[in-house]
Amino acid sequence: MPVLYVAGVSISDNIKDTPEKTLNIISKCSVAVGEERSVALKLLSAAKSSAELYLINEHTGDNERIEILKAVESAEYSVFFSDAGTPCISDPDYKFIGMCRDRGIIIKSLPGASSITSAVSVSGINAKTFFFAGFPPRESGKRRQFFENIEKSKVTTVFMERPYSLTGTLKDMLFFKRKVSISLNLGCHDEVTYYDYPDKLLERLEGVKAPFVIVAGGKIEKNHKK
């Protein structure tokens, strides 16, 4: 029975930070499914793998998924990874995993880094429970509603956005009345986390372009006197 490993890889700027166990398993796979060719090739090189490479990203259609599925079915061991962190959490491609499951392919996890949990861990914000909101919508009305929902939420919320959208995201959050945590370049040598009101963060970070994750603590309601 074919096996597909879903591998979490490094979120740092050094792909060799990927766990040794993961690199060893990748080296034994004859089929690899990545997200972006240049990044995937670097990972395969680090693992000393000669696997046949396929790509799945936001541009992949179902017909392409079916072709990749056939390759995975014909291999004893295959591996699926995204550019950084753990696949299928905002990254591609839960649909492909579902297709593999439905065809009886054995799916196993290779746990690795996640920018979501990393950001929560350094935020200093209570996250006994938290909600991952993914990426904000691009359409202005839905985007505004996205941030209003976070500002009103009583539950800690984590979300991310594209690196070039940092300034715009902070501008969208200027109406927030409480501090948030923002982590930039998680896992890299220049990683930094700030905790402040969005307007103060904007003063410091306007124009910066970097991968980031934001953690917003739940809204605390004031006690009403009886």
Describe this structure in words.
One of its GO terms (biological process) is rRNA processing. The structure is a single chain. The protein is an alpha/beta fold and 226 residues long. The chain has eight helices and ten strands. The protein has helices at residues 20-27, 37-46, 62-74, 94-102, 115-123, 140-152, 166-172, 198-205; strands at 3-7, 31-34, 52-55, 77-80, 106-110, 130-134, 156-161, 180-184, 192-196, 212-216. The strands form two sheets. It has a five-stranded parallel β-sheet with strand order 3-2-4-1-5, with helices on both faces. The protein is elongated. The chain starts with a strand and ends in a 10-residue tail after the last strand.
Features:
alpha/beta, 8 helices, 10 strands, 4pyrrol_Methylase_sf, methyltransferase, 226 residues, 21% strand, five-stranded parallel beta sheet, methyltransferase activity
Order of strands across the main sheet: 3-2-4-1-5
The percentage helix is 25-40%
Unreliable sequence segments: none
Shape: elongated
Biggest pleated-sheet summary: 5 strands, parallel
Please count the helical segments: 8
- Average pLDDT, rounded to a whole number, is 93
Task: Please tell me how large the radius of gyration is.
Answer: 20 Å
Beta-strand residue fraction: 15-25%
Quote the distance from N terminus to C terminus: 66 Å
N-to-C SSE string, H for helix and E for strand: EHEHEHEHEHEHEHEEHE
Which structural class do you get from the secondary structure elements?
A: alpha/beta
Number of strands: 10
